[in-house]
Amino acid sequence: MSDEKALVPIEQKTVDFQGDEITAVLVETEEGEQVFVPLRPICDYLGVTWPGQFERIKRDAVLSEEAMSVSVTLTDIDPESKRPHTSEMLALPLGFLNGWLFGINANRVKEEIRENLIRYQRECYKVLARAFLERAETAISPAMNTLIQIRNNALAVAALAEQQMEHEMRISTAESRLDKASDAFAELRKRVKVVEQRTTPESPVDREQAAEISLKVKALGEMLTEGNPDVNWYQRVFTELYRRFGVSSYKDIPKGKYKAVMEFLDDWHKRATQ
Q1: In what order do the strands lie in the sheet with 32-38?
Q2: Model-level pTM?
Q3: Residue 53: which of 8, 12, 92 has the closest Cα?
Q4: Taking the domains of the chain in order of start, what are their residue ranges?
Q5: How far is 212 from 176, CA to CA, in rounded Å?
Q6: To which H or E segment does residue 163 belong?
Q7: Nearest to residue 95, comparing CAs of 56, 139, 55?
Q8: Average pLDDT over residues 15-36
Q9: What is the structure's pLDDT at 136?
Q10: What ranges make up the beta strands (E) of 79-128?
């Protein structure tokens, strides 16, 4: 951005853009006559902060070179001189206006101003260009006009690509989080099922309980075999156990009946010992 004295317009126009009054000025530069558009009033219409946009223009290698200070005549009157006030404003050549507008990401602004921003990105350049059409065509060579349009189109495509990339990244992040949440939920369901199986009276005895029942039956069978080796006491004890508790395997005995099974085997062992 140039630190030289503000450019004095040779013509100033206020263009009605769907209710917003946008000022543009025609100034004489080293390249000839050019149309410049003050940016701060547009920021006010869009609802975006001027300091943030000013810093963005300074960081942009192209916009910072093209931006100039212009003297703009205001509508209010100086009571002493009886003349309109003037104000120096940072402005961009009309051909670079879309490059700045498309640099404002519509996905990052507040929802209530997004529609207005998109409207400016689509139509503002065309409306201002029509207002200065004849003079602007003589101020900028056809070759320069072509290059400006190419650059503006490239900026527009880049802005849209950036928005699409952000959208895809958000979708990818959301999908990754959903996958992790789904895996965590599945693991949680497994754990809940295990806990339910361990705590529900109707669920089968766990491995440790089944092993204790098996050892208890084995000890009882060995003791009974010593007294009468002609009988298969192991099978008889298991058969009685299954009949009494209504199961086909000691591993299917419900947890709620585990204590009763152990008491039954202990009582049998006690009676056999006596």
Answers
A1: 11-17, 20-29, 32-38, 84-93, 68-77
A2: 0.48
A3: 92
A4: 11-162, 207-273
A5: 46
A6: helix 142-199
A7: 139
A8: 88
A9: 46
A10: 84-93
